[in-house]
Structures are given as C-alpha cells and as structure tokens.
Structure prediction request, 489 residues.
Amino acid sequence: MLKAIPEDQIKFDHISDHGTRIEMLNPQYQLPKQPITVITNLAKFFPQVGSDFQIHVNINGKSETLKDSQKYISSKLDTLSVFGDGFNELKKSFSTSNETSDFLNQDDGVSLEVSMANTEGNIKTLTMKVTGWIGTYKSTRGQKKNQSDFPDNYVAVYSHGKLGQFNILPEVGKNKLSEVYLVGEFFVDEFEDSHYPDMALSNRQGYKTDDPRYRVFSNWLEKTVSNAVSAKQAVVKQRKKVAGEKKKDKQIQKEGELRKSVHKAISQIDSYISRVVTKSDDVTAGKEVVSTAFKTIGLKKLEVKEQMRKILISQTEADTLVSNCIYSLLLFNGFDAEDILYTNSEDETSHIPFGLNIYDYLQKFFAQSFTDKPLFVIYVDSDVSPTRRGVQMEIGAGWVSQTAYDIVKCGKNNPLTPLNAGKRFVEIRKDDTGLFLTTVQFTSMYEMIKHACQLFDKDPRSFDDNKNELSKLADIVDVATFNSRVSSI
Prediction:
C-alpha cells in the first residue's frame, strides 16, 4: 500500500504554491540521460503546456523546462494548417520562425456529422467539432522515425484534454516518403462522449477503428494529410526555385569572370596558335609564352564548380561518319549525351547550348583543364581538318591547356604538329562505300575508349561487345582484305 509523504517533506524546486511532483527512484526502463530528450517527448503528449501549466524535468542535477508545447514544435515547421481558435501561440511562433507566412492556412474549425446509436440504442445524428493543426517539418535531420517509441512524425488525437491515440498517421496516410515531414494534433471531444458507446481500446492507447465516429473522422483526416503533403511539396518546389535562381546568379557571375579571363588569355595566345600548329620549331618558345600568359591572368586559380562537358569530339562535318562511330561507342560504354560535346550529333543534347557563341563555349570548355576537372578530347584528323579554323583553334587550345587527348586518323596524311609529337593514334579508313578497319586497328580504338572510361571512372563494356557494336557502323576486316581495299583508295 502506498504511503502519503508528509507535507513537511514535500518540496518543489521550481514553484512555490502548488503542483505535482513525480519521482522515479528505480525505473524499470532506461531513461534518456539528457532532460531535453524527455522534454522533447513530453511536448508530444501534453499540448496544453503553456503559461498555466509547465513541466520541469530533472535528471542527475540537470534541469529543463517545457514552457509551451505549441511554440516548441511550431518553430520547426515550414507549413501549418490550423483548424479552430485557441492556437495563437502556435501561429505566432510559426510566423516569426519563417521568412514568409504564405504556407499558414487557417480554418474556423470543422464539423463532421455521423449517424449512430447512442448508449440507449437510439440512432442519433452526432456533430463532431474538430479542432487542431497539422504541419510539416522544415527538415528531417536528426528526426526520430515512426519505428521509435516517440517518433517526431505523428498525428495525435486528443479528447477532453487527454491523449487518446498518439499516432493515427499509419491509418490515414499513404506511406509516402514525404509523410516523414508530417506532424499534427487534433482534438475531438465527441470521441469520449458518455452518451455514446465507449470507443477506446481496452489498453486506452487508441480507438476502435470500426466505430462510426472514427471512420468519419479518419476519412476527413486522410484528405487533410494529403493536403499537408501537397503543401510541403509546394514549399520544396519554391525552395528549389529560389535556390536555382541564386545558383543561376552565381553561375552567371562566375561564367562572366571565366569568360573575361579566357577572352584575355585567348587574345594573348591567338597569334601563337596558328604558328604552333604549322611550325614545329616554335613549339617550345610558344608553349612558354602562352603558359606564362595563363598564369599571369590567374586562370589556374579559377574554379568551375560544375563541369560543362567531359569529352569533346573535335571534327569537321566532312568526317561525320567517323565521328558518329566514336560517339556511338562512347554512349555504348556508359557516357551520356550531355557528357559529350559533338556539334554534328543527331542528339541536340550534345550540341552547343542554343544562343551561345561556339568559340565562347569552346573557350570555357578548355578552361576546365585548369581546374581539378578531368577533360578528354578526341581529335578526328582527316585531310580537310588542317584547313578548318575551328579545328585548329581546338587543337591549339587543347595543346596550351595540356588536355588529355587521343587521335583518330581517317585521312591519307599523318596528323600535323602538335598532334604528331610521337603520339600513337587510332586509324580508320573510309571510302565511298563506308568505313573499315582491321582487327588490330580496332584494338587501338578499344584502347582509346578504355582510356576515356578510366578518366571518368566508368566501366567499359568488353572487347567483343564493342567490336560487335562497331561492326554495325563500320566493317572490321582481316589484313588481306584491308590491304586490297587500301590499294584501291
């Protein structure tokens, strides 16, 4: 039998007039070590905590006080829908903790009618007055999920000031990922109306789901939960839009700085590029001068946060058949169209963005070599490419920036300086009937593809898979057939 504590032994640390003190001397369950954890849990069970009712928690000399449950929770929300009066602190705290109150919805309260038998067996129409609120957390960081004893995402139901069901969300939600942001509290006194049958479960920790009052309320709440999820999605969309605009402004500013620097560099090295690609005796001197020019303007210190492209296929329109084969093999081995800059591709994703000057874009592309971003160029060298100003600019810019590259030779002549500086190249032949290469030459082609994959941490497809893929676009022939066709070109 419990014995009353003598009044002279009753002492309250935080109040002087009256209150209730609960001491747990030998708890059977392990309690949290920090009082703030207990306060956080109690806030979910006592929504009436406010100026007239506060909870003080002391654990091993450490104290915390729950002064206002509504204020404590609402400061963490980014959307809030309120039904009925009496939630002023909730709305006030929500508005002051958010930059905008566009996502604060207010309703006068909800009346739900249900026909059911009362305790005397007579069918009556009962009007349930529903008040409460539902909102979504700004973030789920550090949140306890619904598998814990006291999850942070819950929708509680109270009746006559008492907690009737801590979390009705599993019954009314649709198990969507966005429901982890939900939290709410609703008050329905009619759930414990003495004129109607008792709808509480035997353990007093929930309600009978087949009770007409529960069904009508849960149907309404299901729609309310769905609306709350939609509000959260609107907030996320708005945040992404704002973040995107800020990111765009920063990107424009950074691109402006980058463009200005690259233009300055190109103006200094442009005269050297034409000499470098035609005069081998000027390579060393030209390289020193243009390298100094880049360092002088600080281009190496510029940072490009997001890479434009990973691979450039440098080619002319006359060599589209060869370039298409290379492009197809890159896609076959895991690269996306947006990873590749290839102006003659049938996929617009690989083109220069609409509205941008091709040389401005190429300048920005090669400037990436002066950051920690990997870059790779495949030069398709034919008999017409030395006469194309654009190709020569790409060769010169790639040489200055020391960009990783490989060469695909598809002309009669060998590549010119600086592409012929002892570098091994892939060879593919073409005539009026199409393209062909030997198995040995395809091996070099496959090595080039593996080189590209290695630079960007991609796993290349097998040798045979690549050979079969290329054979759909070009003939892979034996040496005898190759020699006979070569002699006819």
Observations:
- Confidence is low (pLDDT under 50) at residues 293-306, 485-489.
- The longest strand covers residues 123-137.
- The first helix runs from residue 35 to 45.
- The two ends are 111 Å apart (CA to CA).
